[in-house]
Request: fold
Amino acid sequence: MAVEDRLKLFVTQQARPLVVLFAVVGICCLVGAGYVYLTPETQTVSEEVNVQTIESSVGTSAVVTGNSTLYERGETLENRSAYFVPTTPNLSFHVETTVPSDQDVMVTQRLTMETVGVRDGKPFYRSEETLLSEQRRVSDGSTVAVSSINVSSMRERLQTKRAETDGLGRFQVLLTLSVTYQTDSYEGTLTTSAPFVISGTAYYLDGPVVENQTHSTTVQRDVQRPSDPTEYGGLALGALLLFGLCGVIIRTEEHSDPEELRTRISHSRHDEWISRGEFPTESDKQYISILTLEDLVDIAIDTNRRVIYDPDIQVYAVIDGSEIYYYSIDDLHAHAWLNL
Reply:
């Protein structure tokens, strides 16, 4: 209670400076909220423009020419995980390159088959065969080229090489695709490869042969970032709170009696010297009015007396012989008590 009374007394004594201070700060918050809302921040961002993608891949197909219980004669097999020499001795490679369709692009495609003899991780034989090599100006977004090989003949050549080397080391076959391109803005080369495996009567590409490249140009531009609602909203809320405090201070000043607050604070501070009680009026007593409760408590301390407080009439008094020292916040209560 004493803390609340001290706070009210401080507010009452400093009401005008506090109202002016909070009002000025509140107005500044409102101005700041308006400024933040009306002036969004400009931010520099990076953006990728003129994006172009070039992609190349190799597909496979083979026509069934041998007798088989797996396939019908004359059937075309495409992109199978495995083919068989007796059934499909000939294999076709389909090289397809896709480019931007809104311009002419110069494309060079080259497909090679390399055979390498390896022992202890080091080659002792190497040969390369070019299966396809062509250059085209592509204007419709894609180009396809086809090259075929006889796998049966390739298997016989590999068997001959193994016989000549008496089983020393092993032979590996690698299919490699190399594509160079030139668009209106970019140029480059795509290279990809995969092992071409012949195992018994089966053969297959051991992995996809596909590669792509995306080009773009980075540009910077200024964009306005929308104002953060938490920023201007927080400032506006702060202004409302400050204006609300101004109203509380004005109301506190209007409804608070500084003298009463001081008395209550003094009562709380000197509570050990004050006792509750009642005292009647006696004509043979001399009544002496004291200006403050603090002074009355000092008299009680000096005379080694206690302060008596009558809550019914809200009067404090120290009785010292024929003299009664008293203090009252409201003179009407004191006058009624003294029958004045």
